[in-house]
Write a structure and sequence with these properties.
twelve-stranded mixed beta sheet, single chain, Rossmann fold, alpha/beta, 12 strands, globular
Length: about 300
């Protein structure tokens, strides 16, 4: 079954061009199925790119998913057309009285700032507190994961000496976890960040499980014991050219940036990158949606 999104959302054309089944609102209304209600809090400045990447991963499942896009009201993106935001995005005040089967909180390019220096930090804290009682399972990505670990568990992010940038090998520490069902023993995932969390800090919290790490990139996946919150440090949803665009952007800005590791053949930026993470990224989103949302969420969404 497909994702259910507004007919005119730009992602629809992109996804249909990739032969992904996208259901129109009209067709969805005529199916006697309760869709999963998934809220995406998109904190990235390039909102259309990010929403398309995530929708692509959510679409490849046998479930019908009603997706809603959320933006902060305390900070409005300057990189996304206002008409797009007003047409397709809602704000917290409009959804706070509702309940959702799943929620995704994206990353944001604010890692070098202290949490309380981020303009929308108080609003994000309010949303994360609300998610405890109004969302069945929440998936935090990259900076969103670091923010969630700090807010919910008091775990500090740590600055890296240099940007962690590239595609890294990761190892599953808990092969029995349904989140990694179908994964190879070693899988790859893109990372692009200036900060990290330490494994020892995760292991010191009895309510948390460390379930995947990388020798080079450190902590990758953490979950709560009750499977209500997941924290993913990388970007398994990235497109093939996302790191290339970030690299060229940083070069144009004159930043001291290395070529993304394990990405371009022979580290040659003039050559097309090698995609090593697509299947693992798809499995991660599909498994979270299936085993931790669909399989366990109550049929009556009001019971969440």
């Amino acid at each position: 079954m497909p994702i259910r999104i507004p007919d005119s959302l730009p992602a629809r054309t992109t996804l249909e061009g990739e032969n992904i089944f996208v259901m129109t609102e009209y067709r969805a209304m005529h199916q006697d199925i309760r869709p999963l209600n998934v809220l995406i809090l998109n904190l990235m400045p390039t909102k259309i790119v990010t929403e398309t990447q995530i929708l692509r991963k959510l679409s490849n499942t046998p479930l019908q998913i009603q997706v809603e896009l959320l933006q902060t009201s305390s900070y409005v993106s300057r990189h996304t057309d206002e008409s797009h935001l007003s047409s397709f995005y809602t704000t917290f005040s409009q959804v706070k009285d509702r309940k959702f089967d799943g929620m995704i909180i994206t990353g944001a390019p604010v890692e070098n700032m202290e949490f309380d220096q981020v303009d929308y930090w108080p609003e994000l804290c309010e949303i994360m507190e609300w998610s405890r009682t109004h969302v069945h399972s929440t998936l935090h990505i990259c900076w969103g994961a670091q923010a969630g670990l700090y807010f919910h568990h008091g775990i500090q992010k740590r600055s890296l000496p240099k940007k962690l940038f590239g595609v890294y090998a990761h190892k599953v520490l808990k092969p029995s976890s349904p989140l990694f069902r179908g994964f190879d023993d070693v899988f790859f995932a893109p990372n692009s960040r200036y900060t990290e969390v330490w494994a020892d800090d995760i292991l010191s919290r009895p309510e948390l499980e460390l379930i995947a790490t990388s020798e080079q990139a450190g902590v990758f996946a953490v979950k709560t014991q009750d499977s209500r919150r997941f924290y993913i440090m990388g970007h398994p949803e990235y497109d093939p050219d996302t790191l290339a665009k970030e690299y060229r952007r940083d070069v144009e800005k004159g930043l001291d940036i290395d070529v993304p590791a394990n990405y371009f053949p022979d580290n040659d930026p003039s050559r097309p990158p090698i995609v090593r993470w697509r299947s693992a990224g798809q499995l991660l989103y599909t498994n979270w949606l299936n085993y931790y949302v669909y399989q366990t969420t109550p049929y009556d969404i009001r019971e969440i």
